Amino acid sequence: METLKFKTNIKCGGCIAAVTPSLNGLAGIEKWEVDTANPEKILTVQAQSEVTPEQIVGTLKEKGYIAEKIS
């Protein structure tokens, strides 16, 4: 399992509710959370190695959100 982190524009509970079905629907994601208190709105994803950062970025983009992988 690996941890992926992204800077996002997910800023509130409503935003989290909007992306929850999509992120939960991605095979290989074990757990995810967004730190909305952080100015960069960090999304942390615990996922199996077959999940790519591009899949997560694309999934959020389909919902109208921006994500940028950070190291």
UniProtKB/TrEMBL annotation:
Signal peptide, first to last residue: none
Q: Where is the HMA domain?
A: 1-68
**InterPro entries per record:** HMA_dom (IPR006121), HMA_dom_sf (IPR036163)
Superkingdom:
Bacteria
| MF GO annotations | metal ion binding
> PROSITE patterns from the entry?
HMA_2
Q: What SUPFAM superfamilies has UniProt attached to this entry?
A: HMA, heavy metal-associated domain (SSF55008)
Protein known as: Heavy-metal-associated domain-containing protein
